[in-house]
Amino acid sequence: MRHLRTPARGAIAAAAAAALVLAGCGGSDEPADDATSAPESEMTSEPSGAPSASEMTSAPSESTSTAATGEVAIGRGVTAEPCPDGSPDRGCIYLGVISDLSVGPFAPLGVPITEAEQAFWTKVNEDGGVGGAYDVNISEYTQDAEYNPQIHAEEYESIRGQVLALAQSLGTSQTLSVSDAMASDNMVAGPMTWWSGWNFDPLVLQSGSSYCAAAMNGVDYVADEVGSIAIVKFPGDYGEDWAAGTRVAAEAQGIEVMGEDIEQVPISAGGDVAATVGALAGLDPAPDAIFMATGPTELGQIVGGLAQQGYEGRYIGSNPTYNGALLDSPVGPVLEASYLVVGPFAPYEGDTPAHEALREAIPEPANDGATYGWLMSYPLLSVLEAAYESGDLTPEGVAAAATTATVDYQGALPDLDLSASPADQTVRASNISQPSADGATGLTVVEPEFAGDTAAGYAFDEPCFQLS
Predict the structure, then answer these.
(1) I need a surface site. Which of 16, 304, 315, 406 has the fewest CB within 10 A?
(2) pLDDT tens-digit readout, 267-322
(3) How far is residue 210's CA from residue 193's CA, in Å, rounded to a whole number?
(4) Is there a cis peptide before residue 414, judged by omega within 30 degrees of 0?
(5) Helices marked H in 282-433
(6) Sheet holding 72-74: strands in order across?
């Protein structure tokens, strides 16, 4: 198990400052093959405390627990025995976390995301747990995959027999690397990714507007101000989904997309930021805006490099591209003046009961990773509660509840009917924010719940992008 380590807040600011040097280096970021499903066998006993690999497997037979009011079927990842440090009167539901917690491009977000999820489930336990009968534990099986699909698959393999569901699976290509194994395991997951394809996977509980819909809204929001744009993206479904939405909206608005999409490999995987800056600086004339789906470190270095080249256009980015710590770097003033974040919901200071609960639990967030972790936890809570009410907390029961439950986001998003069609589950509105030192996480809202004509009228009857 890779242990959770908290990166220093100043690390990303230092990376942005390094844009003034822009040393190039080579590398690649090839996705891993899909994980191989483990064979099924039966649970032979109900363990005390955290279940071990020898005690639980990916698809155990059912048993029953009377820790609940009445009998409830339980299986993998659920014990009648209490959680470590849990209530002695309740059983335990073990959830897994596979995140980016150390050296990957999203570690500065992944750590507060994971901490917020821990705070969320702690609050659930303080309020009586699931059905008043089960506490939830996510700390026993928190894994660091470093935003690497191969490591993600390895970490999934290491915990798949011990957890009922995944509280977090960070990364689009990373989560797709284990999708076959998840299907074999009936493993429901709360993603930390906003790919437009998740609405077509009944095991993945998406929240808010996808990268594709957000990009459409970003284009529509600035359409009156720009006539040409360029696109910078990470390789894989994350960047491609954003790029697809950008191009659809640009065509609808009659906006020129200059040149080919510029693929930026993560710096942590050997990406060459200097090449991206050179490609953007070489566009003639310069684009009016640059649409970006990268990580925060790449954003800081690209903006810093283009500032040296005299670029004065706009930047519009997906929500994982930004981290408020960039305001403390030399590019902070440029971002405040020219950058917009298009996200799935309001940032930390949003005016909803869910945001109020978040602020009470985490009064001093490192960044909006805390917001993502808290708000993205509501769907799995609703699914677990529905499964408990049905009397079936086995993986099969939870998977069934993931197609029938209604998610209550406490105002952060409209209630979500998981039995609806993928198109009807699609959230078409996004939150538009701008960097500001006045915001607790370096963001202030400029346009809440903005749905442009492109996203509002798009069918969303299939993923905007899907690797063949």
Answers:
(1) 406
(2) 999 999 999 999 999 999 999 999 999 999 999 999 999 999 999 999 999 999 99
(3) 8
(4) no
(5) 296-308, 332-338, 353-361, 369-375, 378-389, 395-401, 422-425
(6) 63-65, 72-74, 392-393
